Every structure is written in structure tokens, then in C-alpha cells.
Amino acid sequence: MLRLAVIENLRRVSVRISAGWVERSRAASWADKMMEAVQNDPKSLILVVADMARSNPPLTGPFVAELVRRLQGRGPALALPLSWIEERLSEAGLATIQLVQSESQQQAADQVSVSNSIGSLRVLGAVDWREFVEAMSLVEQTLREDPADAYARMDFASRDLYRHATERIAKLGRLSECEVARKAVELADAATVDRAAGGDDRATHVGYYLIGEGLPALERAAQVRLSGVASLRRAAERLPLLTYLGSIALLTVGIAAGLLAQVLGAGLAAWVVLPLGILSLLIGSQLAVALVNWLATLLVVPRPLPRMDFGRGIPGHSRTLVVVPTMLASEQGIENLVEALEVRFLANQDESLHFALVSDFLDAQQETMPGDAALVERARARVEELNLKYGRRETQGGSDIFYLFHRPRLWNPQERVWMGYERKRGKLEALNVLLRSDRQGGRPAEDFSLVVGDTAILSTVKYVITLDTDTQLPRDVARQFVGAMAHPLNRPRYDRQKRRVTAGYGILQPRVAVSLPCTNRSLYARLYGGDAGIDPYTRAVSDVYQDVFGEGSFVGKGIYDVDAFEQALGGCLPENRILSHDLIEGCYARSGLLSDVMVYEDFPARYSADVSRRRRWIRGDWQLLGWLSDSVPGALKGPVDSGVGAHRLLNPLPPLSKWKLIDNLRRSLVPPALTLLLVLGWGLFASPGWWTLLLIGILLLPAICAALLDLLRKPDEVLVRQHLGA
Hints:
Blueprint: H1 2-40, H2 45-55, H3 61-71, H4 79-91, H5 96-126, H6 129-136, H7 138-143, H8 156-172, H9 177-196, H10 207-210, H11 215-221, H12 228-238, H13 240-265, H14 270-299, E1 320-328, H15 331-347, E2 353-361, H16 372-390, E3 402-406, E4 410-412, E5 417-419, H17 423-435, E6 450-452, E7 463-466, H18 477-485, E8 493-495, E9 500-503, E10 507-514, H19 523-528, H20 544-549, E11 558-561, H21 562-569, H22 582-589, E12 591-601, H23 607-623, E13 631-633, E14 648-650, H24 655-684, H25 689-712, H26 720-725
Parallel strand pairs: 1-2, 1-7, 2-3, 10-12
Antiparallel strand pairs: 3-6, 4-5, 7-11, 8-9, 10-11, 13-14
Helix pairs in contact: 1-2, 1-3, 1-5, 3-5, 8-9, 13-14, 14-24, 14-25, 15-16, 24-25
């Protein structure tokens, strides 16, 4: 508002200066005509003065001052127009000298006003308004009494999220914002007694009542009265999966019925209707899911996860290891890996951040290959060079920054090849065992044949950030990762009976975008790579699973809590059964989405590479089919604590996780179903053109609706006439 007031003053002065400039230009034009008449034909001066008198110019200060300035002292002939002006002014009770002085004073005042306004804008731009607002806010001062002592250590965006939640509750209830904040603190205070008795420690944090599961308790204390629409929305929020799947089922049946109506109208045989009906359900489900997801993003506001403020450094109790599971294939590949690891370090320097390569050899027909030793030695030397280049952290007992963990090949009887045990999943499992080898009596930390770096500090690592080889970690993103994981509402809570994380998050997944350089590598990448590069405008974006269910999907890049990850997944997954393990890990450890944090990765440059990647994903999805039953296969090495057969366990996955698995399987069947429907339509219908257009329309309808909505939607800060004019 202060900036708007200053800008309004500048506008007002600018309008006056502009009007004065017009008047001075008019005066200059008449003065030029008069001086030209005096030089060429002095007798015609009287005619020019008469013309000016007939035009009846407004004798404003700028006009008179400019005309007098140009004509005064230019000879006795020009006294005539000056006398006429003096006579006109005297009729209004004014004098020439009075207007000239007034105009000079006005110009000086305008100059001072503009100068002060520009200076004020600079001062306003330099002021830390966040600090000012929080210092003046009574709500802020109340929330800082948080019994968990977490609110004051959160970042500004998270504190602002809490303040807006307080404002929303106050608008719906009968208490003021300060009273709502006080109620939240009182509820958190009361929960400290339950915490001592083994209660939920999250309840001692004010955020539990403002944006968490304790919101109904705070709303009751604030005497909130929900409207009819809000009550319906709240009822849907209490049964989100039923509402979500029910909407999809209704739309799917309706779309499939519409397609079958077209089939029955064509008079086809009964034996054709059944397969067409099944295929129609698959195609209809694709449109139904797309429409429901699209509507959900419109109706549900994105809910960013709160974070602690680690901008000045990650505390020692949240020590984090950034790891890149990879393969040692060639010396040039090792150079690229080490260079990328160094870039990640330079962008995310922190006393409590360490960086590591967790490597395997390529698959082979024998345990060791002729070039293995040279590759390992090269990797060891390059990692040691990085530690020498950047030194040891003396503040932490001389700990190393960079590490290398390398595993030997093991014989896989099913694949009939020497390979790294369980590939990427095996690397992370072995790393977790190493990180906790001094705390628990499990497998000894002997999975790695080579460890480069001082391992004494590894037992204090609390979080692991896992990245793919081509994943870029932007500046200070690691601190944002750790800050989110360390927040009280996001800390994972493992349920031993359910054998999974049931509250908080064991894994946090960022948004993954395509890096800008890779889209220029080929036409295919430019066409299918989507929006590449940095988006400077978008903060939190909508994600159906996170915003509706409070839970995201893990895609292999993110941060996880080592203890929670091991509790949820240690000894749970069978060997040689799971190729695509990211989703199932997110289901066991409960994954959340950091929609306002981004990492970047490459996009395949060729169609064949993209198809190979998708084929691997689909194959992995179908390997998880067994997790839809009541019992699931367990690891041979893991304890069988809930037996329903040899090495089988009761399925711990909740309904939402099972739907994620089903949705992946459904999505993999849509392309062949569409192809079969097209082929059957071309072979069975006399005029298959309308059938083809109908199926293509079903696929394109969500994109068309979204494009039209984006075209017609008016941003809140834009006026209607401006939006229509654009």
C-alpha cells in the first residue's frame, strides 16, 4: 500500500507536468509565429495576436510563463502581445508576474516531490517487510509461544502459511485471529501432558491444529460454523478415496455406456459386444481419471509442506548424505560422474552435507573383468582428489566431504549373470546397513568392497538424498529438502503393527523438470520434453495425490529418513522380484511431494530410448501385481512376523497405495486397448470415420478443456477489461 501511495503521487505529478508541457508547447508555437511575423512583416503582428485572441487560449501558469519567457526583451514590437496578456489577466484579478512566480514555485515543488517519491521507493524496496510485519503482528507473537519450539525456527513461507490458516479460521468462527492463535497454543500446551504419557508428539506443535489433523479440535474451540458448501467439502475430505474413486467409476461407466450405445446401434453380433465393452471401460477410465484429476486441481488449493529454516546451515543432528547410485562403465563416465558430484557440492555447500557415489560394475559373465581394477582405482583417485581439493571439515573432527561406496558383482542364478545385488535398491539397502551398522545387529556392513572416505561420521547421518546420474541439484535445494523432513508435522511415524509409516513422511519427493540443455539435443526431446528449464513464477503446484490425500508418489529422486526407511522396508521386499521399486518404497515409507522444490533431469533424445525406459517402467509395474492381494511375498533374509505361508506376509498397503498400483496397470493397458478399438472399429463398422473421431476426441478432451480454461481464466490481479482486451 505504501508503494501504491507513492506511485499515485508520482502519477498525479506526472499528469500535471504533462498538462503543463502541452500548455508550454502551445505558448511556444504562438511565440514562434509572432517572432517570425516581426522579422518578415511587422505589420502582420497585429493579425497573429488577433488569431491568438480568437483561439481563446487558457491563460494558465505554464502558458503565460512560457510566452513571457520567449517574448520578453525581444524588442518593442513584441510589447503588443504582452500588453494583451496583461490586460486579459487583469480582468481576472491576476498579474503576469504573479503567474510566472506561481509556475516557478510549482515546478520546484514538483521536482522535490518526484525526487522524494523516487527516494521513498528505494527505501521501501530496501526495507525487510517480512521482518517488519512479523514484528508488528500480534498473531506472530502468539504463535511464537509454540510449546514445541518449532514455529520460530520455520522459514517465512511456512510461518505465513500458519498465519493465513489462523486468518481463515477466524473468518469462519467467532474468535479474533489473536484468540484463534492463543487457542492453538493452549491446545498444544495441553498435549504436552499426553506426550509425556506416550502420546503423539506432533500435537505439541501449533501447526498440528492450524493445518494438521488437529484442525477440527481448533475449529470447535473457535466456534467455527461451516456453510453448506464447506460442509460438503469437509465431508468429502473425510472420505477422499471414496469420493475420488466413486467419481472415476461413475464417469467411466457413463463413457463406456456411451461407446457401447454406438456399438449396439450398429447391429453387431453379441459376441463382439463383450470385448468391446471391456475395451471401452479401459478407454473410458482414461478420460474419467483425467477429468477427475483436472477438476480436483481446480477445486483443491495446493498445500505446500511446511519447512524449517535451514538457510544459515543444516544443524548437526540433521546431517545428510547426498548419494548417486550409478555404474562404473568407463573412465570417461567416471570423470562425468565425479564432475557432476562436484557441481552438486558447489551448489549446496554446508557443514552437514556430504556427497557420495554408490557404484556397481556392469553385468558380466564372470565375477571380475579385465578392466575392473582400473575403473575402481580411477574412481577412488578422483574422489580422493576432491577431498584434497576442498579439504576436510575440521569443525566436525576432520570429516570428509566426498565418499565412494563400491560393491562387487554377485552371482544371480535367475538372471544367470554376475551383477550388483538388486541394482539400485540393493545399493541403497547396503548403504543404509552401513549407516546403521553400529546401532543394530543386522547384516554386517560388508556389502561394499571399497569405501573411500572417513566412515566415522556416517553413523550420525539422519537423511539421505538419492539422485539419478543425470539429476541436477539446484542451489541450496538440499537445505530445503532437509528443512522439510525436519519439520515436526513431516517427521515419519512408523506403526509396528501395520508395518509401514502411517503419519508424516519417510520420503519426500520434489517436482522433477526437464533440464533446458537436453531439449536441444534432438527434435524428439523438443517435441515431447514438455516445459524445460526454470520456471521463475510458479511456486507450489497442484498434485492430486498430495493435495487430496496428503500423500505423493515416489519416483526415485528425493530425500528419505534412514531409520524410517529401514524400519518400513528392511527385509520386506523379495529378491529378483521387483524391477521398479520406487513406487512400492513410497507406499511403505509414505512419500510426500515437495511441490515448490524442483530438481532437473535429462529427457531421452531418441524415441527408442524413451520406449525402452517406458517398457522398463511397465514391466516393473506388473511385477507389483502381487501387492494387490491380501498377502505379499517377503524377503528370504527378512523376518516373517505375520505368516500366511512360506515367506509371505499380510499385505500392509492401505487402499490408496493399492489404487496407485492399479492405476499404473490400467494406464499401461490404455494404448493397446485404444489400438484394438480402432482396429475393431475399422473392421466392423461400415463407416469407421465417426468411430475414429470419437476415440480421438475422448483422448483429447481433457487437454482441450484445460487449454480453454487457461485461455478464459482471469488472473486475480488483472482487471476484466484488461483480460478481455488481451
